[in-house]
Structure formats: structure tokens, C-alpha cells
């Protein structure tokens, strides 16, 4: 599992106090609460971010996969050299795979048994 070293987070004393209280109530660490929160945010907003990457890709005239590499490896504004470099890289994420689980669940709800109307028997 990748580790992201964040030396500090900007938050008010009240926010830090509440984070500590919630962590202690749950028998967790503040770090685990923040990790859980980030995972929840990503799960609920991932489709939104995929669409934003799509928009960026179209505006740059590149594939979604190339835009993802740019955003991961370079900082905006992107130069022509950045774009050419990203185009030459192997994909690190594939749009269809990033959307597949969410897309399938939304567009293929579980089938429910159809009830036959007693009058039609």
C-alpha cells in the first residue's frame, strides 16, 4: 500500500479537537480517521473526477489516459513538451476500468422478480 507523507494539515484548533475526540470515541487514531475520510470521499466523488479528467483531455486533444498521466506526474499549466512526454508513456489508469464498477451498478440494477397480476393468470 502506498504511503503519502503529509507533514501537516491546516485546520482550526476546534477541528483538531473534534478529530481527536472522534478518534478517541471510536478507539482509532487521528490518522486512521483521516484515511477513512479520504477513502469515503474518493468512493463518492470518483465519477466526478473521471468526468473532469475527460473534460481536460478533450480540451488538450489527448486521451483520458494521457490526461491522467499529466495530472499525476506534471503540474499545470502543461507545456507542449509535457503533453508529448505523457503521450509516450504507458497508461497508468484506464478510464473504462476506473468507471466499470460504478457504471455497471448504476446502469444495471439488480433484477427483481416480476410479479404476475392475478387477473392475468
Specify the number of helices.
5
- Give the uncertain stretches in residue-range form: none
Radius of gyration: 22 Å
Shape: elongated
The major sheet is characterized as: none
Strand tally: 0
Mean pLDDT across the residues is 84
Beta strand %:
under 5%
N-to-C SSE string, H for helix and E for strand: HHHHH
The level of helicity is 55-70%
Broad structural category: mainly alpha
End-to-end C-alpha gap: 58 Å
Folded structure, characterized:
The protein has 121 residues and is mainly alpha-helical. It has a domain at 28-109. Helix content is 63%, strand content 0%. It has 5 helices and no strands. The protein has helices at residues 13-26, 30-60, 64-73, 80-87, 95-107. The mean pLDDT is 84.
List the helices and strands and how they pair.
Layout: H1 13-26, H2 30-60, H3 64-73, H4 80-87, H5 95-107
Helix pairs in contact: 2-3, 3-4
Quick overview of this protein structure:
This protein is mainly alpha-helical and 121 residues long. It contains 5 helices and no strands. The chain has a domain at 28-109.
Keywords:
121 residues, mainly alpha
Amino acid at each position: 500500500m502506498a504511503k503519502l507523507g503529509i507533514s501537516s494539515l491546516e485546520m482550526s484548533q476546534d477541528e483538531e479537537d473534534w478529530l481527536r475526540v472522534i478518534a478517541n470515541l471510536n478507539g482509532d487514531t487521528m490518522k486512521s480517521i483521516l484515511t477513512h475520510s479520504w477513502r469515503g470521499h474518493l468512493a463518492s466523488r470518483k465519477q466526478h473526477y473521471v468526468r473532469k479528467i475527460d473534460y481536460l483531455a478533450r480540451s488538450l486533444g489527448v486521451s483520458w489516459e494521457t490526461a491522467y498521466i499529466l495530472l499525476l506526474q506534471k503540474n499545470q499549466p502543461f507545456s507542449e513538451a509535457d503533453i508529448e512526454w505523457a503521450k509516450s508513456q504507458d497508461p497508468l489508469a484506464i478510464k473504462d476500468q476506473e468507471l466499470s464498477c460504478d457504471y455497471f451498478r448504476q446502469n444495471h440494477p439488480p433484477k427483481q422478480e416480476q410479479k404476475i397480476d392475478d387477473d392475468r393468470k
